[in-house]
């Protein structure tokens, strides 16, 4: 949430913290010093883990996070974790169930691109997404397929803040055959209605559907409904 969007009472109590930078926070007891360090969570834009340190105790609270190999290397090189012994670890367990045996993010991205490629240029492409997240996936789709993706004004601003190439996105839905829609509206009725006007493929990258169900939709007729592609934002069961 950006500054100015908080209720006034909370605005006075809020403070911006920089990723990888330690900040000392008053806890009401002069004898206790709490050091707070936000760490990149590699989840969605703005997501962080919190490293909390007192004189004799250290806690790492992951929240929703993604521990890819490349981010593990980056994380281990951060000065904030150098020589730190974590006494307590609060681990995100969003997908802590064997049914969430989902592929690595890079593989899931390639599979999604492959499915969309098979349907271009004959189909209109809808990508069902939440209000936040999947921006890097959208950029990869646009780059690899050499198309622009129509997004909302808010998502375009988010993409700009992330430093993603601006030429990959547009807010003009008439300028391209590939666009994002709300994941909640990416249902059978929507796809059926659009297919009556033009062949339409709807892809929903998500980690919330069990992997088996998501993979069953691969290769399905686009008229049958949205294709659920395994694409979790947080660590999967095996990774946890």
From TrEMBL:
Q: Which Gene3D superfamilies match?
A: 3.40.50.12650
Enumerate the GO terms in the molecular function aspect. 5'-3' DNA exonuclease activity; damaged DNA binding
GO BP annotations, alphabetical order: double-strand break repair via nonhomologous end joining; interstrand cross-link repair
Taxonomy, superkingdom:
Eukaryota
Does the entry feature the keyword Iron, yes or no?
Answer: no
Instruction: Give the keywords, sorted.
Output: Exonuclease, Hydrolase, Nuclease
The region called Disordered is annotated at 207-240
Quote the InterPro entries the UniProt record gives. Answer: RibonucZ/Hydroxyglut_hydro
State the PANTHER family in the record: DNA CROSS-LINK REPAIR PROTEIN PSO2/SNM1-RELATED, PROTEIN ARTEMIS
UniProt-recorded name of the protein: Uncharacterized protein
Organism whose genome encodes this protein:
Symbiochloris irregularis
